[in-house]
Amino acid sequence: MFFRRINDIFDCLKVSAERSSLFFVPKNKKIVKNEVINKISELAESVLSTTDFFLVDVEIKGGDTPEVWVSIDAEDRGVNMDECAEVSNELSFLMDAHDVFSGRYRINVSSPGLSRPLVDRRQYPKNVGRKAKFKFKKDGEYTKVEGTLKKVDDNHVVVGVDDESIKKILFDDLVETKIIPSFK
Fold first, then answer.
1. Which pTM does this prediction carry?
2. CA angle, 128 as apex, 122 and 132 as ends, to 5°?
3. What are the residues whose beta carbons fall under 8 Å from the beta carbon of 44, sequence distance 6 or more?
């Protein structure tokens, strides 16, 4: 009887859940989380529309008290703490007005930081002249190259490789670009 109930529970989990990393996440919770992320993204875009910032990413972490992580950037400059605080205040006001969460939550607004890959084409021009690691797909194979971002246009990045060669990579082929910090 006990094993039958356990098997029923596992059958129920198989039907009503997707495997997400090492944990089972019910489909309806994943859908709700995506809807919340979409709503926060929409509200953040409205806040940012009056600034020179753009939205890079929205993540929700945590359990009982959700933590909302919003990454913003600017095309031609960095983002300072006062600007992040201002965006955070305006965004949290809108989130409260739209009842995004029924209870408490934390919100963190910041620039993506050096450890995060570039995910938006608008992040590339201000990084021209910096060393980076580029992962891209060429002829169905993944290729990695490290070099200096030399030029950016509408469709390509141009990378100067250490052996003095130049690689022109289509944006559509890029899988990941990470800036290598310089402490000179």
1. 0.70
2. 95
3. 55, 58, 70, 72, 87, 91
